[in-house]
Amino acid sequence: MSPVKLKRELDKLYNQYNHRRYVHPDPLEFLFLYKEAKNREIVGLIASALAYGRVAIILKSVAQVLDRMTPSPYLFLINSDYQFILNEFKDFRHRFAGGHNIAALLSGIKKTIERFGSLYQCFLNGLSEKDENIVRAMDFFSHQLAGHEHKPGHLVALPEKGSACKRMNLFLRWMVRKDSVDPGGWERIPPSKLILPIDTHMHKISLALKFTKRKQANMATALEITRRFKQMVPDDPVKYDFVLTRFGIRDDMNIDCLIDKTR
Fold first, then answer.
1. Chain-centre distance of CA 251, in angstroms?
2. Is 74 helix (H, G, I), strand (E, B) or coil?
3. Residue among 104, 122, 103 nearest 112 (CA)
């Protein structure tokens, strides 16, 4: 597979499909509803935390959470204690996440904001200019969200356990990158430090592209695949994530065609 040909074809896909009109159905669309950074970062974390399972169910679950926090998720959290939040979401269910999971996540967000001023400032507090990537900062950030009396469970993945942290990396892509799709806002975090969000689907695409031979979609695999993309786009290794995840969603996109064009 020719790296030059692959980059050329990926750039074609990026120019064709990396536009807001192609976002739906994707939990990213909820971020466009909020202009203020203090609301958008909360919405992004909620939407990414619930981004597993069938997309229609994901959108329904995220909408249910945000509807109860209207008009401002930030003000809702600042003015609510854990017991109020738990009572508000006691009947919530998203696959194997129940009301206690989402209440613990929201409470963790609230406490993190109270301590650091914002989720953004919390993440920056764990990041060093010397860091090759955002793993260390993500670990610090996740522990701030989950290191309280009430545990969000699987809604907050911990890098130290080897997880690919797909949903957290997805959230960071949304918040750090800024283009026609990703809204950005966390400007002091270099996109070059981001890690590709790896799930089963992206793992299969990366195997087809011969970017990895690893059989497990874990953090080691995510880092290996990210390094391959970084060879093509050193300053923005997750640039093609959105368009690559359109494979399997759009009938007019076929991964086999992409591979054939790059041979």
1. 24
2. helix
3. 122
Tell me the residue type at 58.
I
Residue 230 in tokens: 């970084």
185 Rama class: left (phi>0) / alpha (psi -120 to 50) / beta: left
- Mean pLDDT over 53-57 rounds to 94
Cβ neighbour number for residue 57 with a 10 Å cutoff: 13
Kindly state the tokens that stand for 11: 């750039």
Q: What is the mean pLDDT of the chain?
A: 95
Residue type, 207: L
* Amino acid symbol at 10: L
Spatial CA neighbour of 123 closest among 44, 53, 65: 44
DSSP label at residue 261? H
Report which of 117, 168, 115 is spatially closest to residue 138, judged by C-alpha positions.
168
| The two three-digit tokens of residue 214, written as one number | 């690893």
Report the Cα–Cα distance between both ends of the chain, in Å, rounded: 5
48's CB contacts (< 8 A; 6+ apart) are: 27, 167, 168, 170, 171, 174
Q: Is the pLDDT of residue 258 over 90?
A: no
In tens, the pLDDT along 129-180 reads: 999 999 999 999 999 999 888 999 999 998 988 999 999 999 999 999 999 9
